[in-house]
């Protein structure tokens, strides 16, 4: 037996163990990252305990979000619960119309891009995700699924934040 053959035989058990080692890492839940509170034109992330109102947005494979419009008063903290009633991955992202359009274009180029911003939630089929957000600036904003093709198919809605009285 040559040195090269012996080295291959020794490495073979390691090759068999590698898929298990990597798969094992997927079995544990990821630790929750600390909430990043960065002011955006449409508001700022909030702690779940601050939410006084919850809106369920149902996402379906016919590329619809229901409801597709939300009214909010400036200063309100809202829990947006994204309910994926479909069989494919969907997401919900809050932003300005221009930012969402630009991001949707980027998603076409990088469809496997993962999101971890507090104004975004990836939601697997049959699951729920949520965004807790304080809308501290008045204006008209949007929410959408930016997975390649979903935005273009009309999977989006609007948020109107009315000024404090």
Features:
Immunoglobulin-like; 10 strands; globular; 2 helices; alpha+beta; 5-stranded mixed sheet; 165 residues
What does this protein structure show overall?
- 22% of the residues lie in helices and 34% in strands.
- It has a single domain, classed as Cupredoxins -  blue copper proteins (Immunoglobulin-like, Sandwich), CATH 2.60.40.
- The strands form two sheets. A five-stranded mixed beta sheet has the order 1-8-5-2-3, with no helix packed on it. A five-stranded mixed beta sheet has the order 4-10-9-6-7, with helices on one face.
- The radius of gyration is 21 Å and the shape is globular.
- By secondary structure, the protein is an alpha+beta fold.
- The N terminus is likely disordered.
- The chain has two helices and ten strands, in the order αββββββαββββ.
Write the layout of secondary structure elements.
Blueprint lengths: L2 H23 L18 E2 L7 E8 L3 E3 L2 E5 L3 E8 L5 E6 L1 H13 L10 E4 L4 E7 L4 E6 L11 E7 L3
Parallel strand pairs: 2-5, 4-10
Antiparallel strand pairs: 1-8, 2-3, 5-8, 6-7, 6-9, 9-10
């Amino acid at each position: 037996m040559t040195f090269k053959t012996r080295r291959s035989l020794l490495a073979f058990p390691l090759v068999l163990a590698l898929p298990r080692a990597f798969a094992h890492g997927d079995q544990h839940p990821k630790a929750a990252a600390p909430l990043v509170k960065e002011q955006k034109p449409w508001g700022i992330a909030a702690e779940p305990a601050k939410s006084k109102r919850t809106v369920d947005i149902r996402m379906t494979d016919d590329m619809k979000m229901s409801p597709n419009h939300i009214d909010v008063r400036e200063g309100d903290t809202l829990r947006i619960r994204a309910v994926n009633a479909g069989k494919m991955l969907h997401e919900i992202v809050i932003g300005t119309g221009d930012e969402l359009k630009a991001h949707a274009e980027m998603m076409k180029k990088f469809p496997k891009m993962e999101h971890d911003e507090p104004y975004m939630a990836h939601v697997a089929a049959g699951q729920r995700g949520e965004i807790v957000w304080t809308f501290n600036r008045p204006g008209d904003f949007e929410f959408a699924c930016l997975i390649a093709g979903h935005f273009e198919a009309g999977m989006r809605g609007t948020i109107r934040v009315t000024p404090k009285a």
